[in-house]
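Hi team,

Below is the intake form for Chaperone protein YajL from Methylophaga muralis. Please confirm the fields before the structure is written into the shared record.

FORM ID: S-0412
PROTEIN: Chaperone protein YajL
ORGANISM: Methylophaga muralis
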Amino acid sequence: MTTVLIPLAEGCEELEAVTLIDVLRRAEIQVVTASLSEHQQITASRGVRLVADTTLAQVIDDEFDMLVLPGGQPGTNNLDADPRIHVLVKRLYQGGNWIGAICAAPMVLAHAGLLDGRKVSCYPGVLEPKEWPELQFSNDAVVCDNKVITSRGPGTAMAFALMIIEKLMDETTRSKVEAGLVIR
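The structure came back. Fields below:
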């Protein structure tokens, strides 16, 4: 079974986190949510309480087909400040696995060195082109560049999740999930 790890940091963007979890599970992808702290419950950016499946400490050495980082603030700063996230992102990517980040979370990938030379989409102003000249910035809702998928923000979360399904599974599975969501 295809597995995706979604770390949940205090202050993450709940719309992105919940959309990713829900839509990926509709595709029968095994989604594991992991809190950065020893407590499984976190409070998201708008005060919504989320309960992770486990803690990051319990799954840090496990293998996943993909790691996806929800954005939001201060959630992204909390992800970026946790050295385990940087180690995990690098380990999984170097192992040939997919990495995804939405909204402000591509900043974590940039700081981990994964975005150099890549086309990237992120929340406006999170990564400034003059400060990151090695990145190719895009205003596209979702960008896929060599096993790294990035997206702009809460309004693009559904498209982001569907692209993940297409890349991890196939276009048929994506179409089936998309039809069930009645997007069009």
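SUMMARY LINE: The chain has a mean pLDDT of 97.

Thanks, M.
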